[in-house]
Amino acid sequence: MMNILRLFLVSCFCLGTLGAARAQGKLSGVVQDSVTHEPLAFSSVFLANTTLGVTTNELGRFEFAKVPTGTYSVVGSYVGYRLAKQVVTITSTPQQITLVLAATGNQLAEVVVESTPNDPKDYQKFMDQFLGRTAFSDQSHIVNPKDVIVNYDDSTKDLTARSRKFVQIDNDALGYHVKYYGLRFSSNDEDGSLSFYGEPVFEEMTPRDERQQRQWAANRATAYNGSFNHFLKSVYDNRVAAEGFLTQHVRVVVNNRFELTDSLRRTLLTQRPNGQFSKAEKDSLTKWNRAAPVTATVYPEALPIDSIRRVSADGQHVYLRFTGELQVAHFGEAPDPKYGRPMSPLGATAKPYPTLRQVSRLRLQGHEAEIQSNGSLINPFDVSAGEYWGFEKIGEFLPLNYVPPIAAAPAPAAAPVRSTTPTRSATPTRSAASTRP
């Protein structure tokens, strides 16, 4: 049913409420050594997941003169020191903070021992899962591969990766240099889970000419349109249908007899290695092969907005909420040509939905997840995504202060007549890893 991508790549989407028309505030501060409290001159300070970054002066001071109001993760970086991070909420009142960095303990005079080179197959697998396999991912590459340490544990089937300092990704499709600090990546072959997290900062590339600038703008709009970030913003703004989205309830039922059924199937296959089965045994195998640990039933009617959106009594907080799983379709845009699999069915209706669509699945880790006004989650651990959104990775990664062009989004054709016939799926649901960006 759903291969889960934990939306930690949203530390990626985690913090920051940005927007061109939002009020602004001022943020300033100083970066210091944690032991001596001496200022660290020329260190880097940035607001994670944005294009906003500065360098401290000779006194270790920095200033962001105009920051859109909202909540940010402020990160300090300096050679020979660990990252420092502080979460701040920007208002119209100026704020000052102190970032304290701890030395890593390595002195310049020490001998640096090179780690064992990555296994090429493991590194390629990491690349495929981290950058993705989309057309935009094909135009992205890691500039400093030697700074990435990849390990594969054959006993647990875990693939992990981390960076010595940062991983720099150049995305030639979207026109960004991305420095991904503190990368922690994990995937598992058996349960299909994948997560990565860190503190990325974006820098605009310089275009060769106006044509390339226009192409980047078009590609960024394509990456945003129909994305998870776009969907969350449409929920926040109460514009789900107007932005071309359809949401459907998915009822998930655990098959408590699956382990017994699967054990019987494997035992019979072991007993008949030559494949010589009786008619009764063939019938049993056919039945057992259809069994799945979980079944999912998609109900074709569109969920009303109040079924997936809750606003606090004071009107200051908006939450995504639903039961079971949520199937989300976005109409009007074809899937990436490299997706390579059919979209999940939307169910039987009197009037069919448009065929040009992208279909994804969501699962809440709790009862609800709070959304900020730019379409980011307060806590990215709250949601897991699968299917099409699980397919999109770093190749479609945009900064939180990206502002999409104002255009009418394609909405579904006239809402289909409700049908009482649900669509069933026996594909197993995978649980996400408990780690994250």
UniProtKB/TrEMBL annotation:
Extent of the signal sequence: 1-23
InterPro entries documented for this protein: CarboxyPept-like_regulatory
Keyword Chaperone carried by entry: no
The UniProt record lists the keyword Signal: yes
Keyword list, A-Z: Signal
Residue ranges, annotated region (Disordered): 410-437
Protein name: Carboxypeptidase-like regulatory domain-containing protein
Organism: Hymenobacter nivis
